Amino acid sequence: MKLKYITLLSILVLGLVSFTTLTESTKYKCMIQMTNYTGEGAYIVISLINPEGAYEKTLYVKGDDDEWYNTVEEWWQFYGKKRHNIDAITGATVAGGERAIEVIDIEDSKIDAGYSIRFETAVEDDEYVVDDVQFPLTTENIKGKHEGKGFIRYIRMMPN
Fold first, then answer.
1. Which residues of 12-28 are buried (b: 16+ CB within 10 A; e: fewer)?
2. 3-state secondary structure 5-69
C-alpha cells in the first residue's frame, strides 16, 4: 500500500514538472555613464516595455529610498499600483559624471519580438526624463552604445 502511494505521488510530481515551462534568459552587463550635472544623485529605472508601449516589467532601479520613487512619474503609475517586490533589483543613485555597472536579466523571448528597454531618470529638485534612453530590444541594439537625452550621457550593454 505504501509503495502504491509513493508511486502515485512520483507520477503526480513528474506530471507537474513536465508542464512547467522554464523561461530562458540572458544576463547583460549594463554600463550607465552620467552627464556632468550638479545636484543630487539620479534615480534611474530600467524597464521592459511591451510591443504596445506599456510597462511589462521593472528590470532594475538605481535608488533605494522608496520615498522618491514617485518622482519617476510614468514608471510610478505602473509600479505604484501593484508594488511588486523590487528589493533584489535596487542599488544606490548615480551622481553627475559617475558611472555604474549593473547586471540585468532579460528573457530571450523578448529580443527581436517588438519589446524595448527604457531608462527613466529623475533628480531631486530638478527634472524627470521619461525616455532618457529607450531603444528596441533587437539582437543588434542590445550590444550597442545608446546616447541619453537628459542625465544619462550614454549606456552600453553586453552579454555577461
1. eeeeeeeeeeeeeeeeb
2. HHHHHHHHHHHHHHHCCCCCEEEEEEEEEECCCCCCCEEEEEEEECCCCCEEEEEEEECCCHHHH
Q: What would the pLDDT profile of 80-117 be if each residue is shown by its tens digit?
A: 766 666 666 888 999 999 999 999 999 999 999 999 99
DSSP code for 127: -
pLDDT for position 17: 46
C-alpha cell at 63: 535608488
Query: Which residues 6+ apart lie within 8 Å of 135 measured at CB?
Result: 116, 117, 141, 144, 146
Q: SS3 for 153?
A: strand
What would the grid cell of residue 146 be?
A: 545608446
Cell of 53: 508601449
Q: CA 115 → CA 47, 65, 148, 153, 160, distances in Å?
A: 10, 28, 19, 23, 20
Max avg pLDDT among 22-31, 60-69, 111-120? 111-120
Residue 156: partners with Cβ closer than 8 Å, 6 or more residues away? 30, 31, 33, 144, 145, 146
Cell numbers given for 145: 552604445
Cell numbers given for 106? 532579460
